[in-house]
TrEMBL record:
Pfam families linked: LacAB_rpiB (PF02502)
GO molecular function, one term: isomerase activity
UniProt keyword Transferase present: no
Signal peptide: none
Organism: Megamonas funiformis YIT 11815
InterPro entries associated with the record: RpiB (IPR004785), RpiB_LacA_LacB (IPR003500), RpiB_LacA_LacB_sf (IPR036569), SPI_LacAB/RpiB (IPR051812)
NCBIfam families reported for this sequence: PRK05571.1, rpiB, rpiB_lacA_lacB
Name of this chain's protein: RpiB/LacA/LacB family sugar-phosphate isomerase
Keywords: Isomerase
Family: Belongs to the LacAB/RpiB family.
UniProt keyword Isomerase, yes or no: yes
Gene3D superfamilies per UniProt: Sugar-phosphate isomerase, RpiB/LacA/LacB
Length: 149
């Protein structure tokens, strides 16, 4: 079971706290990279903290990022080499981002979905395996582009 590294900005703080509790109760080892209050902060700083850790431990860690919409977190997350972050707001996307794209960071918007929806998406995302095959070739092409550009 991979360790979960989680971060949020002020808008995602309450949802992050909820998910940490749910993840720990489900037996996951969770590392909280902040923020630690609802005081206004820059989401990007927390995306970098989470994603640098995941990128340096691809075999052992997944990341979860939460901000108001999830958009800022996902955009910043994908600037970190080795990260395949995906913003989800439905169960199908949560499943497909792992099955097809082997996403290693899940992004969600606390002003878009409820805490319970976020937990459902997280459970689906964590339990879905990458399908490999033609999808592995697509992920490899994506990562090769990143490496060579």
């Amino acid at each position: 079971m991979k360790q979960i590294v989680i971060g949020s900005d002020h808008a995602g703080y309450k949802m992050k706290q909820f998910l940490i509790q749910q993840l720990q109760e489900a037996g996951y080892d969770v590392e909280d990279k902040g923020t630690y209050s609802e005081d206004s902060v820059d989401a990007g700083a927390y995306a970098i903290k989470v994603c640098e850790d995941v990128a340096n431990n691809l075999d052992t860690k997944y990341g979860i990022l939460i901000c108001g919409t999830g958009i800022g977190m996902s955009m910043m997350a994908n600037k970190v080499k080795g990260i395949r972050a995906s913003l989800v707001s439905d169960l199908f996307s949560a499943e497909m981002t792992r099955a097809h794209n082997n996403a290693n960071v899940l992004c969600m918007g606390a002003r878009i979905i409820s805490e319970y929806m976020a937990w459902e998406f997280t459970k689906v995302w964590l339990s879905t395996e990458h399908l490999g095959g033609k999808y592995a070739k697509r992920v490899e092409a994506m990562m090769n582009y990143e490496k060579n550009r």
